[in-house]
Task: inverse folding
């Protein structure tokens, strides 16, 4: 497997994102929300790089492959979220690909009456993004290759790798 970003490169980038987010949210209540399962390693590192006190929550997003008659369906589960009313929300995902997941989640989170919703992704496959969503914080822009590691999986495997690699 070809290494795209080493553990050290990821750690340095995540710390810089954390510094930026700390500055932007220093005077307002913040809740960081990770998208399970892919963001779990990124969220764990990012929240320790954010110096501003904040709360934590998770949502689940999963895609189900469609049939000839039914297109691919995106299922969202927001049942275990903390109260977001009046708070700044930072929605954190591992990768922004077509943008469907973050677009749909942003709409659903707005129903919880937060002060504002911002988004952070570690990786952005910019050339693949179909929706108008523009992530507020981006770790790295990457080409259209399938990547694994640092939380990202292929059929449930490779999430444990401390680096990000391109799967052939
Ligand atoms: P959308 O298209 O909604 O997709 O922006 C976001 C979700 O798609 C998955 N995804 C990947 N997972 N390697 C992965 O392990 C990849 O290269 C990749 N591209 C997209 C991922 O679950 C992400 O949350």
Result:
């Amino acid at each position: 497997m070809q290494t795209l970003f080493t553990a050290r490169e990821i750690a340095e980038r995540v710390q810089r994102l954390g510094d930026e987010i700390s500055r932007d949210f220093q005077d307002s209540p913040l809740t960081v929300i990770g998208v399970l399962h892919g963001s779990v390693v990124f969220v764990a590192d990012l929240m320790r790089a954010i110096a501003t006190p904040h709360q934590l929550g998770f949502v689940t997003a999963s895609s189900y492959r469609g049939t000839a008659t039914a297109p691919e369906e995106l299922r969202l589960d927001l049942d275990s979220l903390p109260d977001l009313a009046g708070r700044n929300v930072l929605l954190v995902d591992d990768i922004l690909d077509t943008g469907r997941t973050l677009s749909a989640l942003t709409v659903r989170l707005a129903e919880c009456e937060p002060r504002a919703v911002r988004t952070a992704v570690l990786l952005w496959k910019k050339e693949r993004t179909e929706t108008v969503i523009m992530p507020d914080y981006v770790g790295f822009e990457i080409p259209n290759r399938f990547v694994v590691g640092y939380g990202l999986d292929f059929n449930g495997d490779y999430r444990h790798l401390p680096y990000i690699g391109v799967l052939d």
